[in-house]
Design goal:
There is one protein chain. The chain has 329 residues and is an all-alpha fold. It has one domain (3-49, 80-327). It contains 15 helices and no strands. The radius of gyration is 21 Å and the shape is globular. It starts with a helix and ends with a helix. Residues 51-84 have low confidence and may be disordered.
């Protein structure tokens, strides 16, 4: 499937995140922990019983060729089936370089901090403000992409990023007039954007060498462990919760994470990190529209103005980045 099709589908699923979070009665950090724990658990069968791991890059494919008598024998029957399950797991993980493994763990730490800060912001400010501000990651992806990945952007792209900053300032000023509680929630959402930018930049680096399944499993596992550590440090209760909360945890894992963020992980190998980041600008629009029937939440005029300016800036930014990508070999 084309990345141009996959990215919008992923954004649609991600847009339901804020709605599911607001409906839950659990503490924000517990929601983040179970979201990642369930995502990791649901991902395991796909990793265990998916397609066999590809041969290493320095090994020629054996299709249409015969091994030398001294070479290893090709697996057949039950042995081939085992290679496609547990054997494939160990083959995929054992071939990972140490520096790539450390990068995956760092990516998981960024993802854990992203969910910890952003999910907390959903309960403290409006869904519109929270989703708009957390999608400011293109600003940080742009800077990090230039420094780390050598991805250059045009002056027009930089100008549109400046427009998003103006919109962010107007939105935050509108929330400050509502109350400091909303402004603190805006700050958490902003931090969530910083952390997810780090997660996406590392993903862009590592996905050039690792399969989406291996990368995602390691990152989600590391993120779960990191969130559990935060739970212990902060004394966040992890039970008991009503059945509705457990269903919401599962929905966040299946729809918003596996069918949302995991699809974006796959797309990171084929498109620039800044393009993937800015493509999620549809999330605040969809989430804000859903917040009206679910919670009767209508942004203030000043907040809505800031949100519109920010989304317009992001929209033209992604168009500029895509134009640059088409011109780049």
């Amino acid at each position: 499937m084309s990345p141009r099709v996959v990215v919008p589908i992923a954004v649609l699923f991600i847009s339901f995140s804020a709605i599911f979070i607001r409906l839950s009665t659990a503490p924000p950090l517990a929601i983040a922990t179970y979201r990642m724990a369930f995502s990791t658990l649901f991902l395991l069968p796909l990793f265990l019983f998916g397609a066999p791991a590809p041969a290493p890059a320095d090994e020629e494919p054996t299709v249409g060729k015969e091994r030398s008598p001294a070479g290893p024998r090709r697996p057949t029957g039950a042995a081939k089936q085992r290679h496609g399950s547990l054997g494939g797991v160990f083959a995929s993980l054992s071939g990972i370089r140490r520096d790539d493994l450390l990068l995956c763990i760092a990516s998981g730490a960024f993802l854990a901090l992203h969910f910890a800060t952003w999910i907390a912001s959903v309960d403290m400010t409006s869904i519109a403000s929270s989703t708009v501000l957390v999608n400011l990651q293109p600003i940080f992806v742009l800077a990090a992409g230039a420094l780390v990945l050598g991805e250059k952007s045009s002056r027009a792209s930089v100008l549109f990023v400046g427009i998003t900053i103006v919109g962010c300032a107007v939105l935050s000023f509108g929330d400050a007039r509502v109350g400091t509680h909303h402004l603190f929630g805006d700050g958490l959402a902003f931090l969530g954007a910083v952390f997810v930018a780090g997660y996406m930049i590392i993903g862009r680096l590592v996905r050039q060498r690792l399969t989406a399944r291996a990368y995602t499993l390691i990152v989600y596992s590391a993120s779960t462990v990191g969130l559990l550590v935060l739970d212990l440090i902060t004394g966040t209760p992890l039970w008991p919760f009503p059945l509705t909360d457990w269903l919401l945890f599962a929905a966040l894992a299946v729809f918003c994470t596996l069918l949302g963020h995991s699809l974006l992980n796959w797309a990171l190998k084929y498109v620039k990190a800044s393009v993937v980041a800015t493509s999620v600008l549809g999330e605040p629009v969809i989430a804000s529209l859903l917040a009206v029937p679910f919670f009767g939440e209508i942004p203030s005029p000043l907040g809505a103005t800031g949100a519109i300016i920010t989304i317009v800036g992001l929209y033209f930014f992604v168009r500029s980045e895509r134009a640059d990508a088409r011109q780049t070999p």
